[in-house]
């Protein structure tokens, strides 16, 4: 409104001050035939100036040029120059512009361009700085525009995307995006649209490559056709997003596409909500000059960039011209191309434009924000709006400013179209992917009479977790298994993910749930819910095995040598005692102590007694007879001392042996593992644990990783279950680094396993979903709720229970000796018994023979007699007299 008042005031003052006749300003305009909007906007702008200005009347000379005929175009420019034009407006595209640009510069006629022109700087440089630049391009400077697209892409966090472009100029527009793409980033698919109108094969190719984000660089008029074909090949589904680089994308009516599910983002130079645009659009609509019987519908929201720019160009020109004309006389001469003439006014206009920012025009505007040019005539400062299309309308979600080209300021959070449609629907059905692993997810065992269908074919912690989450969210889910069975690992060579993460990236699932660790790498490409379990990397090792002790293991505490020396010493000492006792007078005793004068003395130390004495000593039992002589006592004392030491040593060593048996090779921590070479260790391949070691820069873990890589056979296992199997089979020579949760489960089931040391890190399992997934908040909320209700704990208890839970808590020190430990002693005892019985039998038979000889009996008689004595347990005394002999003889008669 202000501008209108200012404009009217200006005209009135002018009317009074300059009471001369209106001066006519000739201007030239060059258009291609195919852009009616720009021409209509130009005619409207001219009409507007003429309507309000009593001082100046603009006389436009509008010419049409062919797209390719440079010669004809040159002639047209010369013809216009001959008419005495003050400025040239157009053309509306780059075709044949160069000739216009050159002639205008040579004749020093200012030219106002409104198209994307990356070659302007080159042209201006070629003409040198001695000539002030006479070309002004109102279209945003290409380099800055490219920067804006790169910033938009970065802020939208697009990682894996496809670029579809129409012509090679598009690559210049996208150059900053290419520059920002690092070698570590995921590969980008770049495709050029072919000739013709059928782009379906190309779009199908993109669809097959599982890319969901697409940058489309093409002419505004082709966008709708391409999007329509994309929709046909199902490239406009709910997970697809588009960035359109055309600054006119906002003006397309997508109604033809019907219920667009994909997100479409673009940028625009025009803010249709400004008063200026609204007023101009209204006047424009009302006073639309008829152009070849065409009527262009001009709503503020659908004004095209070039149309607004040509209006701004004329506004700028007339404002500057008027201002200059107030202080100096502006003469516009007719010029001929053939003669070496130049204009009088050109450089003055150009100098004036060059020094200021055009904020307010003579007419309402500028419509495209403040206008400012650099030395090359490029418009380097401008603002862009970021607009997002929702099924209902366009929403401005942020702005970009050329003063801070690396930033975007978001005014609203981008809402995926899918969210809007989901919010309106009440049925939610998650597509969930998982993988089989005990106890997280297993196939349910079929029970007779019950047919399992749907999600019920599975059971396990994850199944229960999903049931709980979906119950809270009042939703349903469809569970299926990941194709390759992996959790999700990034292959830097192929530059792609596998496993569950891949399925999420390919949008084959809404959620991925299993023992899926939240890692930094994964977090960059997918989103995770709140963790539902906390864990750390730990070491699984087998408990030391108790090797079944050998039968004669009681001999182990002393070496064979010592046993042999001991046996020899036993024999030797027994004999020495025998000899010494014979010499020692103290051991010659009176057999009848009452007889003070004995005729004979008796020595009890026969060999038998000597052996008995030494045996009693070494067995810690003592003996019923003891030596009396000094020397014999000395020998015996020394033998006792020897026996004391030997027995104590034996006992002590026996205890040590029993403990040792339980130990075997042991480790207490990761440091222990790293500093030894006997026990090999490994991890599950392609999992978070492997990545932990691979990416760690802690020297201990780096060393362990290096060791694992060079070990042969490979210490890596395909799955945790195989790692556990290997630990159990390796007799303590292999340890498996795995996550504490799974470790706990395995340890509860296999009592020969144990966890060693502390956790190496702390992390959690989360539910993965696509980046910016609409489900993230609700799923996280449901997990949190389950945790608060104690449901997660209950589930853990339910699925982790195992038979060794208690045993593993018991201390290993409570080891009892089994029969196997003391078996040898029993064997010795039994052996001794049998030997004793055999000796007893031999003694018996020897005695039978003796009796037979002594009492003149036959061997049989003597045997029966002695046998009767032996088996008649009542008889305590053995008396051999006549009656027993007679009885034996009568037995003979029988
Ligand atoms: N939970 C791990 C992952 O998400 C797999 C097991 C492991 O690496 O120890 O990759």
What does this structure look like?
The chain has 894 residues and is an alpha/beta fold. Among the domains are: 21-142 and 280-377, Response regulator (Rossmann fold); 143-277 and 384-410, Response regulator (Rossmann fold, 3-Layer(aba) Sandwich); 553-661, Helix Hairpins (Orthogonal Bundle); 819-893. The protein has 31 helices and 31 strands. An 8-stranded mixed beta sheet has the order 7-6-8-9-10-12-13-14. It has a 6-stranded parallel beta sheet with strand order 2-1-3-4-5-11, with helices on both faces. Strands 27-28-24-29 form a 4-stranded mixed beta sheet. Helix 12 (305-327) packs across helix 13 and helix 18 (560-583) crosses helix 19. The structure holds glutamic acid. Glutamic acid (GLU) binds at residues 487, 515-517, 684, 687-690, 738-739.
